[in-house]
Specification:
The protein has a 5-stranded mixed β-sheet. α1 runs antiparallel to α2 (about 25-45). The protein has helices at about 10-25, 25-45, and strands at about 5, 50-55, 65, 70-80, 85-90. The chain contains 2 helices and 5 strands, in the order βααββββ. By secondary structure, it is an alpha+beta fold. It starts with a strand and ends in a 12-residue tail after the last strand.
């Protein structure tokens, strides 16, 4: 398995999304989303270049991929030289993505 590095902002996004889903849609939906997120990360570990490169975001090399079963939620990630995965953010794809800050 590839190493996966979770940036602090990714972990904050994860907590915010779980809280929001729990409050708005219930614990079952929040847990289903969390499991889908973990499965999607495992998919990225196997196929790191599946997501499209986002030339509109920085730093260079940011890619995005949809969370399985939750198509409005995107994972923003990069692939290291050693093929490790760096998870930057997990956000709704319907938001203004240009305002997202990605930690290098």
């Amino acid at each position: 398995m590839r190493r996966v590095h979770k940036r602090p902002r990714f972990l904050l996004d994860l907590a915010e999304e779980l809280t929001w889903l729990n409050e708005k849609a219930g614990a079952d939906v929040a847990m289903a989303w969390y499991e889908a997120l973990k499965n999607t990360i495992r998919q990225l570990e196997k196929h790191p270049f599946v997501g499209r490169e986002r030339k509109d975001l920085s730093p260079a090399g940011i890619r995005s991929w949809r969370v399985s079963g939750f198509p409005r939620r995107l994972i923003f990630y990069g692939v290291g030289v050693d093929k490790s995965i760096v998870l930057y953010r997990v956000r709704q794809g319907t938001m203004n993505l240009l305002v997202l800050k990605m930690e290098p």
